[in-house]
Amino acid sequence: MSKIDEKRLLLKIATLYYQDGLKQADIAKTLRLSQSQVSRSITRCLKEGIVKISVIQPPSVFIGLETKIQQRFGVSNVIVVDVQDNPSDAQIKRAIGSSAAHYLDTSLRDGDLIGISSWSDTIRSMVDHLHTTKVKAKGVIQVLGGVGHNGNIQATILTQTMADILSCDAFMLPAQSIEHSLKDKLKMLDTAEVSDVVEMFNKVNLAIVGIGMLEPSNLLRNSGNYYDKTRLKELADKGAVGDICLHYYDESGRPVIDPEDDPVIGMSLEQLEACELVVALAGGLDKVDAIKGALSGNYIDVLITDRVTAEAILGAH
């Protein structure tokens, strides 16, 4: 077979396969070739440039940004959502929440025990966007205490609503996020209703968390579950830049409070590291340092954030 005849056959196979959508077996039958010949020819078409495959990125999808963050911080998956150049907090939370709901819809598996952090407007937005699913989750568990002024209402609604949508059990944590002392914390952990839930933390295989700044959010302030100004200054002096489940860390992701001295009743940073999949929802330029610290500490596996924040994480701002 001459080279021009060979090229002609390759082009015919490529046209039938890529443009006309024929299966390899049908092409083999049509051209009286073996299926292995067709398969090898398709491979040659790609190698020799007869066929070039292009991935067209839509305007509001940011694969480049996502890949750069994944590579820089070693995180398994990053999802960057589109927002306008100067988005409001509400717009950011709504966009991230919607994307997080879609991620959960597509990644949830039968038997998942889902941990959910109580104090995040973005997580609340995710729950608002969730749809019912055929997947049978094992349950939704509150992984951070929520008792306090308006606190129990927020924590209960989030956890129970998500469990209702997923048609699974809800496990509430009837304790404050931050106890007044270690003695009070140990006393609470000694009660059956608290210890039974806390003991389930190690069984959580999918945790959904927010990332907080040193300065508590309005939601957290209204709940009463936050440190006072004196304690916050102490944390700042130790280099704290952010928190997950109210466990504070520095820019390198190192905890600034020894676990033995931590009065928080919630899933620990160590438990988050050991969890199979931790999905963090966080956006806004004021959270860049907190997000980078969480990424550096290897506490999260999936980050869902907005475009402006993603650019700032990479130093574009």
From TrEMBL:
It comes from the Bacteria. Residues 64-314 form the Sugar-binding domain. The keyword rRNA-binding does not apply. Keywords: DNA-binding, Transcription, Transcription regulation. It holds the Pfam family Sugar-bind. InterPro entries: NagB/RpiA_transferase-like (IPR037171), SorC_transcr_regulators (IPR051054), Sugar-bd_dom_put (IPR007324). Belongs to the SorC transcriptional regulatory family. This is Transcriptional regulator. One of its GO terms (molecular function) is carbohydrate binding. SUPFAM superfamilies: NagB/RpiA/CoA transferase-like (SSF100950).
